[in-house]
Automatic annotation (TrEMBL):
Protein name: Pyruvate oxidase
Annotated family: Belongs to the TPP enzyme family.
Native source species: Micromonospora avicenniae
All copies of domain Thiamine pyrophosphate enzyme central, residue ranges: 201-331
Entry annotated with the keyword DNA damage: no
Gene Ontology MF: a single term: magnesium ion binding
Source species taxonomy: Bacteria, Bacillati, Actinomycetota, Actinomycetes, Micromonosporales
């Protein structure tokens, strides 16, 4: 039997080390599905309910494994649905290949059903973006697409017209698009590690050695460099501040770190940024410049593998283009060990106070349940190598502050796209990649409801993921943003009845529980985590709990007070929650 294009695609993906495709078939990709079917023993196809979830899964898979994520969707609507998840990959710099279908070449341009020109549609999201029109282009253009995705750490897209998918693959006599050799190393990772140039390192060391109050800001790009980050911080007497995606770079319980920075960050991190005279940024494109040292306040050293991202937020005195781990290894012998530890010591003491404040918020006595207590219960019961995925919303605040990175724990969310709904699909993809690990999705009721059919995907694939729903029956983050901006809340709370997602989980054939009483919570979490299959705990939390910034600024306090006086519908409940938290700081 002659190899068709769909089959050639599947074979070559296998040669690149791809073993999983997330997707949903349709009449626009029947030829590709036949190709995947012919290689089904080695190439797993994870059938989803919505293509957006397939793209999130490919992104989550790439984030957690460092390997290429692959998703597939049919022509027109299927390809349109992929987009949000693909932007998540692009903005968080992970390699994803999107494969879509296109109408037959004979009808293109005739306004045919589902004729959506996806190469136009994907122009902004994909670094490599091609409609394959001749079987002789395969597998050469697939190799080029994959190399683009891996080396640029972004999205590549190939779309295949229907007739082409089933055409026989033949050799182009002129070899214009070389089929080349199959890749040598498999599975292929995104980038070869690039060492730093000596003159750049010398300059960086000069700046760092001259500083007296040195701070480090580490991002997800420093993920493989835990030991090196700690060694450099130790030598410089520098506190380590972490971006939210960079939370897993060093353990939260390590004495050298003061935690995160920004609205979801900690007070000591924010204050030390205001005081430092030197900043070492490693593997980060941290977006919120207002939390970084003011212009002229500090000299800056930046280590990043991508020179185009250098100096994006702050003027840089020494730029080192290199892999974080290699650069820090090379830098360490050039650093003078700082004996004055007063800057570090001051913020270590502040950090202890902050952690004690946070512990008080995990109050088991509160009714309705405090979301901090919910996250705290999960944190306490989860394994030392558990993986937590999270959605955008107030859950990001609770997980930033109350999910403790220790041991081999990991943490993933949609960082730069900050989209709702990836938590559940990420968990499914990561459980596929790491079958033996405990994978927990900590999501809000809003994000969960968007793609909740994917819980069935987990059940059908017998994936033992755990879903914990922080159910405030509202769009909690938006509620607080409206208040902080000075508007009375509007259209952010759902009407009754509230959903019972625990009952939905049981209807799907999984473990499901609904918790409203704080006393029942620890047990429900323990049961869900111990359950051998998929499990879900839907926990009603206090909808009026404010996700407070680490440090409250005057404008925020002013707007809050004004909006409050203008007539918040839930005045008393809101006030009670805030009072418990930090009402003193809110007085302008
Ligand atoms: P990225 O932006 O992905 O940057 C990583 C950098 O590392 C890139 O420049 C890349 O080139 C580089 N890199 C990659 N690999 C290597 C390597 N091997 N060696 C060297 N460099 C490498 N974030 C916060 O920090 N604080 C907040 O308060 C906050 N609030 C948020 C609230 C919500 C609801 C959500 C959804 C997100 C929030 N975020 C917050 C996330 C935020 O939007 C950004 O995504 C995040 O700050 C960027 O983190 P990063 O710099 O680590 O990652």
């Amino acid at each position: 039997m002659q190899e068709i294009v769909g089959e050639c695609l599947a074979r070559r993906l296998l040669e690149w080390g791809v073993d999983t495709i997330f997707g949903l078939p349709g009449d626009g990709i029947n030829g590709l599905m036949e190709g995947f079917r012919r290689h089904q023993e080695r190439l797993r196809f994870v059938l989803v309910h919505h293509e957006e979830a397939a793209a999130f899964m490919a992104t989550g898979y790439a984030k957690a494994t460092g390997r290429l994520g692959v998703c597939a969707a049919t022509s027109g609507p299927g390809a349109i649905h992929l987009l949000n998840g693909l932007y998540d990959a692009k903005l968080d710099h992970v390699p994803v290949l999107a494969i879509t279908g296109m109408q037959e070449t004979s009808v293109l341009g005739s306004n045919y059903q589902q004729e959506v020109h996806t190469t136009h549609l994907y122009q902004d999201v994909a670094a490599y973006n091609l409609m394959v029109t001749n079987p002789q282009q395969m597998p050469g253009v697939l190799d080029i697409a994959i190399r683009n995705a891996l080396t640029k750490r972004t999205v590549a897209h190939l779309t295949f017209p229907n007739d082409l998918q089933v055409a026989a693959v033949t050799q182009d006599p002129y070899r214009h698009v070389s089929p080349g050799e199959p890749p040598k190393s498999s599975p292929v990772v995104s980038l070869p590690a690039v060492p730093a140039a000596q003159p750049d390192l010398q300059r960086a060391a000069e700046v760092l050695n001259a500083g007296s109050k040195v701070a480090m800001l580490v991002g997800i790009g420093a993920r493989g460099a835990r030991a090196e980050v700690l060694a450099v911080a130790e030598a410089l007497g520098s506190p380590i501040v972490k971006t939210l995606p960079g939370k897993m770079v060093v353990p939260d319980d390590h004495p050298l770190t003061t935690g995160g920075l920004g609205l979801l960050g900690t007070r000591p991190s924010e204050e030390l940024m205001e005081e430092c005279d030197t900043l070492l940024m490693v593997g980060t494109s941290y977006p919120y410049a207002k939390y970084l040292p003011s212009p002229g306040q500090a000299r800056v050293v930046q280590i990043d593998v991508d020179p185009s991202l250098m100096g994006m937020r702050l003027p840089v005195d020494a730029a080192v283009t290199a892999d974080a781990r290699l650069a820090l290894q090379q830098l360490l012998p050039l650093l003078q060990t700082r004996t004055d530890r007063s800057f570090l010591g001051k913020y270590q003491r502040e950090r202890d106070t902050w952690l004690a404040d946070m512990a008080r918020l995990r109050d088991p006595e509160r009714h309705p349940i405090a979301p901090q207590y919910l996250m705290g219960c999960v944190d306490e019961a989860a394994a030392d190598d558990a993986i937590l995925t999270c959605d955008s919303g107030t859950i990001a605040t609770w997980s930033a502050r109350h999910w403790t990175i220790r041991g081999g724990r990991e943490y993933y969310l949609s960082g730069n796209l900050a989209t709702m709904a990836p938590g559940l699909p990420y968990a499914i993809a990561i459980q596929h990649a790491h079958p033996g690990r405990q994978v927990i999705a900590f999501v809000g009721d809003g994000g969960f409801a968007m793609l909740m059919a994917e819980f069935l995907t987990a059940v059908r694939h017998e994936l033992p993921i755990k879903v914990i729903i922080n159910n405030n029956n509202s769009y909690g983050q938006i509620l607080w943003e409206q208040i902080i901006l000075g508007y009375p809340e509007y259209a952010v709370r759902h009407r009754q009845p509230e959903a019972d997602f625990g009952a939905w989980a049981r209807a799907c054939g999984a473990f499901g529980a609904k918790v409203t009483d704080p006393k029942a919570l620890p047990d429900a979490i323990r049961q869900a985590l111990a359950h051998p299959g998929p499990a879900l705990v839907d926990c009603d939390v206090n909808p009026n709990e404010p996700p407070m910034p680490g440090k409250v600024h005057y404008e925020q306090a002013k707007h809050f007070t004004e909006a409050f006086l203008r007539g918040q519908p839930k005045k008393m409940a809101t006030l009670a929650s805030v009072a418990r938290d930090k009402i003193n700081e809110l007085r302008p």
